[in-house]
Amino acid sequence: MSLNEKAYLTTEEAAQFLRQAARTLERRRVDGTGPAYLKAGPGKRARVLYRLADLKAWLEGETYRSTSEYISK
């Protein structure tokens, strides 16, 4: 099953889709700059999952036409 066919992606799969390291995605989750995610289960050790639609929406929000646009973010 390809990444585009899965309903929910793990951190590793989401990072692969975004072409980022899993640690980068984890860091973005901590500082609130990454895509929306879900927690499957209670507690701190619950599995983190991503919906493909949320990853695509986050990418659309990260679209720029000039380097001067993202410096002010």
In short:
The chain has helices at 11-18, 22-31, 52-61, 67-71; strands at residues 8-9, 38-40, 47-51. With 73 residues, it is an alpha+beta fold. Helix 1 (11-18) crosses helix 2 (22-31).
Shape assignment: globular
Give the name of the CATH architecture.
Orthogonal Bundle
Helix coverage percent? 40-55%
Strand order of the largest sheet: 1-3-2
Task: Calculate the mean pLDDT score and round it.
Answer: 88
Count every beta strand, where a strand is a DSSP E run of 2 or more residues.
3
- Strand composition percent: 5-15%
Count of DSSP H/I helices: 4
pLDDT < 50 runs, ≥5 residues: none
Helix-strand string: EHHEEHH
Distance between the termini: 37 Å
Structural class designation: alpha+beta
CATH class bucket: Mainly Alpha
Number of domains: 1
What is the C-alpha radius of gyration, as a whole number of Å?
13 Å
Q: Could you give the topology of this structure?
A:
Blueprint: E1 8-9, H1 11-18, H2 22-31, E2 38-40, E3 47-51, H3 52-61, H4 67-71
Antiparallel strand pairs: 1-3, 2-3
Helix pairs in contact: 1-2
Descriptive account of the structure:
Strand 2 and strand 3 (47-51) form a beta hairpin. By secondary structure, the protein is of the alpha+beta class. The chain is globular, with a radius of gyration of 13 Å. Helix content is 45%, strand content 14%. It has a single domain, classed as Arc Repressor Mutant, subunit A, CATH 1.10.10. Strands 1-3-2 form a three-stranded antiparallel sheet. Helix 1 crosses helix 2 (22-31).
